[in-house]
Design goal:
12 helices; alpha/beta
Length: about 425
Amino acid sequence: MRSLKTIAVFVVAVLVVAIIAVAGYFAWSKRESDERQQALQSFYQTPSPLPAGKPGDVLRSEPITSGFTLPPGTQAQRILYLTQGPSGEPRVSSGMVFIPAGAAPEGGRKVVSWAHPTVGMGDACAPSRTDSHNLMSWLPGMLNLGWVVTATDYAGLGTDGTELYLVGKSEAYDVINAVRAAQRLPGTGAGSDYAVFGHSQGGHAAMWTGALAPQYAPELKLVGVVGAAPAAALSDLVDELWNTNTAWVIGAEVFVSFPAVYPNLSDSAVGTPAAVKGYQALAEKCLINGILEGEVRGFFDEKFFSQNPNDDPSWRSAIADQTAPPLPASMPALVTESVNDGVVLPQSIVAMQQQWCSAGSNLAVQWLGPLRGTPETPNLETHMYEGSVGGALATDWIGDRFAGRPAVPSCDQPAPLALTSSS
């Protein structure tokens, strides 16, 4: 009996030490992050009054000295540039521009504008303010091909104002104006031919860019758009996710952004009391912490939505309004999607594929096997890895578009899973 008590005391002591060590690590990590963000804050301060200028004008730039392992000779710049909101109002976004080594070719370098996935709405979550190399594993490959890569943070993320999360016009304008900013940043050699690649939320931005770019920026030539697990078919996606733990992350950000565009929306009409009370603080958390809180709340059977937002007329209208329209045949599009994505569930991509192909879009959907787990098990990690796998596939596809080779749609190829009645 004494031996068992000794073992129990030892186990408790080990657990206490482990908890203290973990708490100490997170306290140190947070302190280090806070110090870094404080050092960066002056760069991200929006000038007041806002200077006169055109969308894409660079207000400020500085070298990025850490966070990426890049090919020799590559330059990386953090930028602050002018952009526009959905009604054309002036806004400011931050971002990054990566410039390959060597002299620019005649006619200028090709440009890829990257649209990042959901990262959280807090200033410290902005990719240009963090070590975001894990989101951009495909970046060295594009730079080795001699392409300029520009990466918006989206206006209001890391800068003043509200990030208009999943608001198509706002995201697309930020993506397009990042290309203009790359052109105007000295030393890039950026030309007018560009492509867009986005993951998850960024896939939503990419598809909206395909719809709006020809009219919004006719001086630029968009050769095609790529979405890795894109949140493109929002209405279908909401049908699938509203009653899951993922809703705590996505729902919190939508509750912040959508009422900024649609003032008639009521969070209490579709949100639980717990969601209405806590979504502001949750939206500010960076992704991993937001996911953890959502999982904990789900474990205790707390729900974010009290009903499917599509069942509320006002929310249904806003969601449909922000669902990317099928692109015309003149705008090639590639979508990559895994059969066991646990966030952008594959049924929403099946629905998108059917809708867009019926509308005559030049759409290719490249279906991937499970990146984690099994085909029958939706997996969050799979969704995270799709950014890397999709980036590698996007590099090849975009290279063909830059070379002038025609895109081949896949509309004659059936999806590897059937469309369910819920989609």
